[in-house]
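Collaborator request, handled under Task 6.
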Amino acid sequence: MPLVDHGKALQGVSGQDTTPLDFTFKSSRRWRVVNDVQVTYGWAIGEIKVFDDPNCQNPLTPISATGYETTLASPNRTIDGHPYTEWRAPCHICEPKEAWLTLYFDVPVTVMCMHIFQWGDRDYAAKAVVLQRADEVSQIDDTVVDWVDVLRGHDLKGGGWDDLHFVQCAPLEAPNFGLIRLTNNGFYPSEATFSCKGIRPLTGSSISTCKADGQWSDSPPTCWEAIHFIAAGSAVLFVDVAAFVIYYRCFMSDKSKPLTEESMIPQDYLGKWNSELFGDFTAEPKLLSLVVFCPCCRLADTWQQAGILAFQFAIFLPHFFFCCLPCIGSYFRNLMRKRFNIRRSSATLDCLSWSCVPWLAAVQEAKMVDAMCVVAHEEANAKEAVDKRKAEADAKAKGPRSAGPRSASLAPSTIGAFKVGLSTKTGALRKPKSSLEMISSTAAPA
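Structure tokens returned to the collaborator:
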């Protein structure tokens, strides 16, 4: 931004790397500029301008200036408004902090920005300077007892204007129901720390840093009220329970029974995974979608069908121990290997599978367990059918051998008014008379 000096625009003002050193912002009647690096052929300054704001908009007017020792060129040339008039330090090779130029004011002022025009682009210009404030003055001889470093400028270039100034970030407001603690009054490098009142949770970054470009690193956070936190937690819990119920009713109601120790699986299906870890899973889009979008339910489903853990308990593991999921998944994968007689090459490989490609490991295990449950169910049905046919065959084989003794026990006998027994002519079971026949036969002799 161009700076106005006595009606003339000073072009070429460039922002340099500036380090604030003091944030007390005290006032003083004496300020000075000191070379912070060695200057080879004497330090030459054409003009100095100071301001009392970090945006360099409110200029301050020194009443006089003095320099290191006495030279033919008056130090007041640095405040005469003409950059082509210069003051040169008497030292031929000025060591760091050896040369200085002091500005005097009639009242105490606070300098927060300084523009300096140095002559020469290499040998007569200091690449780094320090702005100092007189903090304590002797009451006897009016000399400065203590100088405080306020600003340091780096990478300055001679032959043009350079600036040293404080950088202030935009004011921050504390969040609702929250507090803010600010360091350095919001000037770079300032840090804002946010906190919430009471037990309200804070969402967002609790710390924001003022950067050299005048911007905060993070936006202010939000302090949630307890009712908002409870409502959000209830909503999450409701969605979680709804997903659990929907999955259980839609995807587990028609599944085969989970595997048990008594489940029979043919040897042809054991000894290896029935799908590769990095195989083509596009043939199972439904299974892949469940693993990606509803991993907790699908993992619990797999572990229950494998006979490892009940669904209602297994679903809590991915929820509350998500950070330990690679270890949990590797442990359960080892149990599946033992159940299906799959050789375990390395525990590290199983852990890496669950750490690097957990969705692929979950799909592989889910496909394996679902297939084994179907096979075990078919084997159980086949065994039940064989046992049933065997029982029927045994019953038929035992039937004729037991007919003799049973027929003997059915000797003719009188049960009330009915006679039941074997016919002496045909050996067939004699049919008892009906009630009407019995009545007519007893009434005829009368």
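The cover message to the collaborator said: "The radius of gyration is 49 Å. The first helix runs from residue 226 to 251. Please let us know whether this matches your experimental observations."
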